[in-house]
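Escalation from tier 1.

The customer reports that the assembly of two entities below gives different structure tokens on two consecutive runs. Tier 1 could not reproduce it. I'm attaching the input and our single run for tier 2 to review.
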Amino acid sequence: MDPITLEVHWSRLISIADEAATALLRTAFSTIVRESNDFATVLMDAEGNSVSENTGGIASFSCILPRTTRAFLARFPADSWRPGDVVITNDPWLATGHLPDITAVSPIFHRGRLVGFAGSIAHSPDVGGALWGADCQEVFEEGVRIPPLRIMREGVWNADVLEMFLANTRVPRQVQGDLEAQITANQVCAAGVAEFLDDSGLPDLAELGAALAARTDAAMRAAITALPDGDYHAVQEADGFDAEKTRIVCTVRIRGDTMEIDYEGTSPQIARGINCVWNYTHAYSVYPVKCALDPFTPRNEGSYRAITVRAPERSILNPLYPAPVSARQLTGHLLAGAIYRALAPVMPERVIADCGGAPTMRCLFSGLDRNGDRFSQVLFASGGMGAAPHRDGLPTTAFPTNAGAGSIEAFESVAPLVVWRKQFRPDSGGAGQFRGGLGQEAEIEVRAPAPLRLSLLSDRREHPALGVLGGAPGGCSDIRMSDGTRPHPKSRTTIGPGMRLTMTYAGGGGYGPPAARPAAALEADLRDGVVTRPEDYA
Amino acid sequence: MTSADDAAPRARSLNEPVQSPTARIGVDVGGTFTDLVLHDAARGITHTGKLLTTPDDPSRAITEGVARILREAGLTPAELHSIVHGTTLVTNTVIERTGCKVGLLTTQGFRDSLEIAKEIRYDLYDLFLDPPPFLVPRWLRREVPERLSADGEVLLPLDESALLEQARFLVENGAEAIAVSFLHSYRDSRHEERAGALLRAAHPGIPITLSSAVAPEIREYERTSTACANAYVQPRMQRYLTKLEADLRDTGFTGALYVMLSAGGIASLREAKEFPIRLIESGPAAGAMAAAFIARKAGLEHVVSYDMGGTTAKMCLVENGAPHRKHDFEAGRVRRFAKGSGLPLKVAVVDMIEIGAGGGSIARVEAGSGLMKVGPRSAGAVPGPVCYGRGGTEPTVTDADLLLGRLDPAHFLGGEMALDQDRVTRVVEQGVAAALAMPVADTALGISRIVDETMAAATRMHLAEKGRDPRRYTLVAFGGAGPVHACNLARLLKMRRVVVPIGAGVASALGFLVAPPATDAVRSLVARLERLDWDRINSLYAAMRAECEALLVEAGAAPDAIIWQAVAEMRHVGQGFEIPVPLPGLVLSAHDLPAIRTAFFTAYRERFARIMEDAPIEALTWRLSAAAAPQDISLARAATGASATRGTRRLRTETHGEVAAQVLDRYALAPGARIQGPALVEERESTTIIPPGAVAQVDDMLNLVIELP
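Tier 1 run:
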């Protein structure tokens, strides 16, 4: 296939995945899907290899979906699929690492033949179990586990299974609505592929998929080859759970056109929900590499072939069933920082310092509002991004995840809560030639008639985002109640009417020595009040 | 000044009395040219003109242009009924960051909302992306103790002395305009209004923008951003519009002066001075209104208008004679075609997509994948494509079109420009073909295929978001490159018909003359349908109606001729995206609930193909649009009467390899003429490609109506 036809077909296939993503995003109820972009749509060939992925969803999901699809194929052989089938799972080990994400895959038929799969992943509004807890001891407490099963057979719901599942969720209507949104997205994708095959005259996606994968593979290998061979190390520590601190030990081995990321020496798995299954470990290891080495080539199955990821079994980065895994992002988001610090000496122009928003910090309020309606609201907000080689870190922006923030007015209009302030935190950006991105602080008052449930997911209370190449760390996170107490940072608790909760989000690490910061930049920061301690830059 | 493509204007006989002021002029001030079009239905004349924009004082080119076009038409300023003006001044001020120093006053605890923004990276993979812009630096954002709840309850009274103190700080530090944005002011504007009164009294020379006046919609970041942008452009626009009016009056002009708003309506100077941000898309709106006019005249109900120029292609859905509109816009993007990289503005605009695909879009081979990409980088007008011979060194879409035989190397731009084919061949060979290991001719065809696919993908996505199927639509093509690529784009989208109006360069200016007086109002009130306070909704609509009626009457509409359209934005409780739902009237009660619910489900199904009947529905935002009927102009023209045939040219096609295409002179084609493809129909600003198997017919307005095989 000539390179021009390849390009024309590729952009068409990406736009098909994007159309599917648009359909999903606009009909989903889940606020996590909407505000955190916690979803993905992937178009795969008949063997479950990724051919194209949507542009804007969560990078890690699109990397995992093909693997989940191949697990489906192992259970349901290719010749058993029929048009209108939908297979789903939320198994953390087969899919994206925790129960709330539902993976749905539909077969694509063209002229009576199975030619590929349309897949989508979305964070469900609810899957039962412990709502947003990092404190469970086994996966069974975390919600309903759905093994790979046909939720739809030839367009007909598997009503018994659906009813069983929905009966175990808090908001069944919304859960079903989002499942339907995923199925719609898959249908959009399948219809787009069928039309594409008609237009192009191709019999299926096999040859095209292979040709595209060869291109992305070559692009990544070329970028890796440009780095000097060697072993590069970094250690990343985090608060972990109580006495059990998390210690990520990362070795990156560059050999010719391949890269191996090895987490030998990392903390063992623990009996709390911050274990990060291997699928998630892999996804959050290759994503930061892609950003640094080959950001602009679109992704598919070939993008990550040159990269091997190893994590010892029973470590916090490769826990075994039935470990609790609900808050696996609190561990998985740390990997980018470890990899970048390991590689900083050999590619200083391509990395950023640690991010205050890695991992994300969340508070979820749930209970009854003044009308007696049940509500559940997450305050989305991020810490600061790490500083870059030529620029200050972005304030209040998450990396490696891309969770956005909603409006406070919209937040207050659907929940009995008042946010009294949400503002930058001066001095929270790590000092450096380039300053780390600022964190922020939000103060939330409960105005419900009765106490609300409060779930907290956070880290970085004791472990700030580190700087690189001489940059200083950013400010740590904190969570405080107006009565002066500090709730457990990974707990489920309650908060009474009139109480205020202050969420303090971490700043990003600095890049380069603080003394090298240009005087004009420091002056502007002082005038804007985002730096109040010029001595940090002495 | 030219009037080359006009039918011979009717000469005015000396005994014709000088009387009724029936002539109207549309003026479009662009970055390079100021375009004028004069139409007088009573006298049956149309004139067009073009002169260089005078950036130091744009009103100079306008007054000069008006005087010249009147002279050519044999009219006096007193015979002018009105002038409709569109300008890129607002958008350029935002893009070039040349607005005034703005101070912002916010609710205590929220001065950083403007910079915290949406906390999202608009490119997932670019570690070094530039953040979206904001117009007011932190030290000029000051906080005032005050707070309302989401229900409008006062949680903290406005601290008036703190307000005045902060305002004094801003003015002493050089603020030339002040924006005020308090939380929940869309729900209850009392604190903002009180602040506005105090500020105007204390600082009479400083324009004050209240967020609740410019964009009374929920979501503080977008509303604050809109208020700041309005304040940012206001002093300059007020000076400019005041001077323009005075200059025109000095010439003896006694008619009305209107401006074109971003949503395609015309408005009074008062509205433009108070809310200059509503002019942000003034120019592109005129193009869409022109497309809508062509569609109405040609009896086309489902149209995609497609305008491909040197740098971008713009597509807009035109249904039942009106362009689609939306209520948010992104201006001044730091990465031009990246959604999320600009300033969000809550203003009504024509709903258009703009992508980096134009005649000047540059082809290159990407290092990583080894594949060819076309655009979004563009050679623009300077240096332009290689074939222009003005120093362009990278191969562009226009260069490829030349090599494919689509453009006449000897007669480009009506013969004003000779194109250098040999040089183009060398650049395409060295620039891309060699790296792809493909022949130059195939590479040129590839450049065209890639840019066509890019446009098709963007159009497909735009229509998919609205639940529309492109196959039902007719493509109406404008711009220099539009007619060249229209049939390919239509083929990729499986559209069956393409319409190419004559005189692509003039068509857009017609928009000023056919646009009706129109404006919009909005309020936010969030509630589930079954809990709505209808008295409150009705009072919101009564207030909006009064507001719109006053503006429209000033803009020349008769009150009883106004067409009202009420729309609420609704969603299922728990969802994050609202859909517009038409309401049965401006006075509503609980009896209307079943009809409103049905309308919601109809709109929902149209967009998402399924509904959920038992999930509760809530409304957030209530809109009213008001417009007089669109204006009609008569454009019947005659052909030159010369022979149309100019010979044949080798044309390389996507579908039939190389063919011999007849070459025709557009101006010589009379209504009713029928053309069998392959053919190339040349006019001054563009060439229409009629592919093999397609048949074109010239209609009464001299449109080429092409039916694809």
